[in-house]
């Protein structure tokens, strides 16, 4: 499908606006999840990173999130108090600490939320898009993620200098 230049410009503007709305919806959805867990959004994102890697050090988590180690200490304290994470000392070097997710407690709270979300998305996509269109959407999401990661890193580097 070939678009006229003015149509392409309009599409790019519409994509930007839809992307902003998607971002806002995503943030609000994750805030609602955090609220249901008794956390704030930053704590929830830290918990996501801890779950994905299972064994981050506080310093690694701070770097990934762009936070100070002091802020991460407070976050890990809250996650431990809520029963979602725990600190573990290294068996060889007792000074080293890693943070691990308490998977069963998290799954009990998050599985129903994400199962509902995934089922709703599957219904929406299956009803509206062909396999080829879903492959295009997947490509868009992956490319968008790479751009977001690159732009985030660029801002972090600018702040460091």
Quick overview of this protein structure:
The chain is built from 6 helices and 2 strands, in the order ααααββαα.
Question: Could you walk me through the main structural features you see in this protein, from its secondary elements to its overall organization?
Answer:
With 161 residues, the protein is mainly alpha-helical. It has one domain (5-128): Orthogonal Bundle (Arc Repressor Mutant, subunit A). It contains six helices and two strands. A two-stranded antiparallel ribbon has the order 1-2. Helix 2 crosses helix 4 (69-82). The termini are far apart. 11% of the residues are buried. One of its GO terms (molecular function) is DNA-binding transcription factor activity. It comes from Dictyobacter aurantiacus. It holds the Pfam family MarR. This is Transcriptional regulator. Residues 8-146 form the HTH marR-type domain.
């Amino acid at each position: 499908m070939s678009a006229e230049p003015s149509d392409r410009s309009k599409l790019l503007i519409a994509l930007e606006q839809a992307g902003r709305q998607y971002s806002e919806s995503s943030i609000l959805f994750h805030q609602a999840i955090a609220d249901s867990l008794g956390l704030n959004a930053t704590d929830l994102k830290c918990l996501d990173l801890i779950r994905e890697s299972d064994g981050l050090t506080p310093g690694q988590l701070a770097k990934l999130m762009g936070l100070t180690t002091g802020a991460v200490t407070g976050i890990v304290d809250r996650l431990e108090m809520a029963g979602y994470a725990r600190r573990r000392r290294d068996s060889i070097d007792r000074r080293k600490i890693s943070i691990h997710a308490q998977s069963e407690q998290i799954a009990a709270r998050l599985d129903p939320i994400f199962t509902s979300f995934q089922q709703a998305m599957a219904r929406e996509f299956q009803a509206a898009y062909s396999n080829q269109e879903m492959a295009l959407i997947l490509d868009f999401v992956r490319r968008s993620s790479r751009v977001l990661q690159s732009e985030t890193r660029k801002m972090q580097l600018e702040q460091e200098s």
